[in-house]
Amino acid sequence: MRVFVTGASGWIGSAVTDELLAHGCEVVGLARSDRSADALRAKGATVHRGSLDDLDSLASAAEAADGVIHLAFKHDFADYAGAGRTEHAAVRRMLDTLKGSDRPFLLASGLAGGISGRPLTEDDALPHHGADSMRGGSENLALSYAELGVRPVALRFSATVHGTGDPGFTATLTRIAKERGVAGYIGDGANRWAAVHRSDAARMVRLALENAPAGSRMHAAAEDGIPTRDIAAAIGRYLALPTASVAPEDAEAHFGWIGRFFALNGAASHARTQEVLGWTPTGPTLFEDIAAGAYALPG
């Protein structure tokens, strides 16, 4: 199976690329830079040069593939609305290319900001519609193509996809704790984040490519919801720093851009995903990774 993967050299995408190659797929990875292209070739993947702004390039790669896994996103928090509009345009162009083919189109989505008071389930639709909504409303856009001869699947990743080398949210929170001398959480820290190890996430993506039904939502969430105050405490224990609450009105000043996300609720069930895909997470927990030094900082 020839699979076009955007974000193929990224944190999740590189693990997905390895997983697909190990199971006999031909991976065509989108590469914007020479460094990304070299990394993909070293793995044995085919390189497709381009970017999310190059819609014709995305369309040509999608047309030539048996399926698409769209993991790339412009993480430009200085222009997050613009990043969403880019996402919307890129997703629409690839979906229009696949229309009527019954080929799979899997795209990365998220769990943060889901349902208040209970874990988000695979049956829960997100409220984001249109290019100006969160992530360009790409999840709902993609799922709407289930009636147009595409097999779209939303891959909802936990806020923390953890492991050694993770450059994401947990790494950022660890760096901020070291800089501030305190491991902080917002308010009472009762809001919860789902978590999954990178290897488990990659395996879930491969299983979803093989078996997830059209229009489904799959949750990469091995731990359904960890209170953010407990995440802060685990970081504090590792760094030998105190843990403290940060008032919501001070969150941006203390945490910077990540404050708006650390305050959100991101608890999610993975029961349906496990049932549909036969997916059982086996990797380390988030706390095990933190304690083992996965987020060790230089100096």
TrEMBL record:
Top-rank taxon, per record: Bacteria
GO molecular function annotations of the record: aldehyde dehydrogenase (NAD+) activity
Domain NAD-dependent epimerase/dehydratase: 3-213
CC terms in the record's Gene Ontology section: cytoplasm
Protein name: Nucleoside-diphosphate-sugar epimerase
